Amino acid sequence: MSTRLGNWLDERTGWRRAWEAIFLRKVPKVNWLYTLGSATLFVAINQIVTGILLTIYYVPTPDQAYDSVQYITTEVSAGWLIRGLHHWGASAMVVLAVLHMLRVIFNGSYKFPREMTWVTGVVLLLVVLGFSFTGYLLPWDQKAYWATTVGTQIAGAPPVIGDTILRIVRGGEELTAVTLARFFGVHVWMLPAGLMILLGVHLYLVVRIGISAAPKREE
Amino acid sequence: MDEERKIGRRRFLSLTTWAIGGVISAGLAIPAIAYIVGPALKREEAQDWIRIGSASKVEIGTPTLFKTKIKRRTGWIVNEEERTVYVLTENGRDFVAMSNICTHLGCRVRWIAEQEQFFCPCHNGIFAKDGRVLGGPPPRPLDRYEVKVEDDQLFILGG
């Protein structure tokens, strides 16, 4: 039955070829460090799912942000779990992405023909850090407020253009409702859009070129 | 032994991957559903007696409008909400408190003194002064609150 359905679909979509190209491709002999990329992808999916769920209750305004987060944590069924997964997943995401990058550096996997995979990967890491920075403000508690005060102040450090950058990041002189709203917008719309595009290219290249073999001792 | 031989290493790993993936997906999907529907399944908090005003203000034989503000928690917001109640008495001792919400689709009804009827402007629902349906689409009489009188003060039971 399922084979027949699969055949029917395959005739019309050619899904089997795509499936084989993605999941049944030949892989050189590698070790567990080569799973760090997949681990990062796994956590990214976790962040997307839990993040979408959080927006059901979260409200990005100064008078409601904190209360809505408390409501999620203490009153919504499994809210503590969804928020917890997003919170800890955020840290795991940064750690795994960095470890993944270190593995690529140490094994020289960034070399020809995988330069573009590397470049998109580096930008992806920047996107992840952008997620961390903007997401940190959203609970709108003391830690969030002051961490973002300091963080945006750092953005204002460069000479000449520093003050302009600071004002653009904060949406004004001070950390206000405007800041919270734009951090939310960047966190749930702009960065996810960037993540999707870059991740698509990154994974396409991994599938197309294949992963590099672990370097041998004599090489 | 023969049975075990049939499942090769490749097939075993494939099945294991699917199983673990399924467990993780379910582990997230089940809390996610609970999370989404949770607040919808919560019953309203315990009802309480709400003071709406002085019983002597009720004119005998005419529904009298009472408005009162109550504090209500919805989600993470505490709001002041207005409760509007029509109170009717025929003898000054027994009181009937009716909601002013039309039983058809929830618009507010209003007492038309000349016609001695409640009228709903949305779909021309008409109720008698005791809340019976006289015409239009409403499926049932106006909802009633439980009422009590203490020291000339009217209370209704609501949340």
Percentage beta strand of chain A: under 5%
Element-level helix/strand string of chain A: HHHHHHHHH
* Overall pLDDT of chain B: 88
Number of H/I helices of chain A:
9
User: Which bin fits the share of residues in helices of chain A?
Assistant: over 70%
| Tertiary shape of chain A | globular
Straight-line N-to-C gap of chain B: 67 Å
3D structure, described in words:
The complex is a heterodimer of chains A (219) and B (159). Chain A has helices at 2-13, 15-23, 36-54, 65-74, 79-106, 115-137, 142-155, 162-170, 177-209. In chain A, α5 runs antiparallel to α6 and α7 (142-155) packs antiparallel against α8 (162-170). Helix content of chain A is 72%, strand content 0%. By secondary structure, chain A is an all-alpha fold. By secondary structure, chain B is of the alpha+beta class. Chain B folds into 2 domains: 2-41; 48-158, Rieske [2Fe-2S] iron-sulphur domain (Rieske Iron-sulfur Protein, 3-layer Sandwich), CATH 2.102.10. Chain B is 24% helix and 38% strand. In chain B, the strands form 3 sheets. Chain B has a 4-stranded antiparallel beta sheet with strand order 2-3-4-9, with no helix packed on it. In chain B, strands 5-6-7-8 form a 4-stranded antiparallel beta sheet, with no helix packed on it. Chain B has a 3-stranded antiparallel beta sheet with strand order 1-11-10, with no helix packed on it. Chain B is elongated, with a radius of gyration of 28 Å. In chain B, 17% of the residues are buried. The model of chain B has no long low-confidence stretch (mean pLDDT 88). Chain A binds chain B through residues 46, 49-50, 53, 56-57, 64, 67-68, 70-71, 75-79, 81-82, 85, and chain B through 28, 31-32, 34-39, 75-77.
